[in-house]
């Protein structure tokens, strides 16, 4: 029995000579590539934390401490966080994922109201993938899990940037933050999710739509870094995390549909 199960597993993972392994194409291939890139970047930022420190330092303004009883303390601020116009832009972009989620939900509901030839099964799948990704990625994975357990203080909370907590490298999970921590950026993850909605655009128009969409969605992570609210690694990994989850959810939907097709094809 065990030998037969092993043979079936090998057959499922192998392909004939000259054929392309299904695990490295389509959504599954993108998922594996993006997940590998994500962990490689995490390893880089963890091994070379000076990258985060140097980038945060470019936005930090140091000044003399008023209390001379604290020798060695660094005082300063991230002046861009006090810019009213930039803060307004951040608040607008903060609700960008919510706006697009409502749009996707409306598209899904309207599509489900159609029947027969006017119903688009692919559009329904696209909408479900987008909504499931938003919930499982930026909301569950980032805001409820990683930001609660990562322990990484935000730049303005660390002692080298005017705070009172020790610096923690990306992925160390041993910092002094206990809630709503810096790793990874929830706003960047939300912006990354919006960037993934490029899949809704017809293929012939994507080269035209993609550049401005990417630029707009990158503004939110950039503002968080300039405000001292997140390190560069938090923003970059947060942004990319949505692409990883989006590809993973898409791969799951594709595998589920393939299983259903195989099941129906065996029915007598």
TrEMBL record:
Limits of the Phosphatidic acid phosphatase type 2/haloperoxidase domain: 128-254
Protein name: Phosphatase PAP2 family protein
Listed SUPFAM superfamilies: Acid phosphatase/Vanadium-dependent haloperoxidase
TM regions (residue ranges): 29-48, 92-108, 128-146, 208-229, 235-253
This protein's UniProt keywords: Membrane, Transmembrane, Transmembrane helix
Keyword Amino-acid biosynthesis: no
């Amino acid at each position: 029995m065990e030998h037969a199960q092993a043979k079936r597993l090998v057959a499922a993972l192998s392909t004939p000579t000259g054929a392309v392994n299904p695990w490295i194409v389509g959504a599954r291939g993108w998922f594996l590539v993006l997940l590998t890139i994500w962990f490689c970047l995490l390893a880089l930022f963890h091994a070379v934390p000076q990258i985060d420190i140097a980038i945060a330092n470019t936005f930090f303004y140091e000044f003399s401490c008023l209390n001379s009883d604290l020798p060695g303390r660094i005082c300063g601020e991230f002046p861009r966080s006090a810019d009213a116009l930039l803060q307004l832009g951040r608040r607008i972009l903060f609700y960008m994922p919510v706006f697009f989620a409502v749009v996707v939900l409306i598209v899904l509901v309207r599509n489900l109201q159609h029947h027969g030839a006017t119903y688009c099964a692919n559009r329904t799948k696209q909408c479900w993938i987008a909504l499931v990704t938003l919930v499982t990625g930026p909301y569950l994975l980032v805001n409820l899990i990683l930001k609660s357990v990562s322990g990484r203080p935000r730049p303005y909370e660390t002692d080298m940037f005017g705070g009172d907590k020790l610096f923690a490298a990306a992925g160390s999970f041993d910092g002094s933050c206990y809630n709503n921590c810096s790793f990874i950026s929830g706003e960047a993850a939300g912006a990354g999710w919006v960037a993934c909605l490029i899949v809704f655009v017809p293929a012939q128009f994507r080269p035209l739509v993609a550049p401005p969409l990417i630029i707009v969605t990158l503004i939110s992570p950039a503002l968080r870094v300039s405000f001292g609210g997140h390190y560069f690694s938090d923003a970059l990994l947060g942004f990319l995390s949505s692409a990883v989850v989006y590809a993973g959810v898409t791969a799951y939907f594709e595998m589920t549909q393939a299983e259903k097709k195989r099941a129906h094809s065996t029915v007598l």
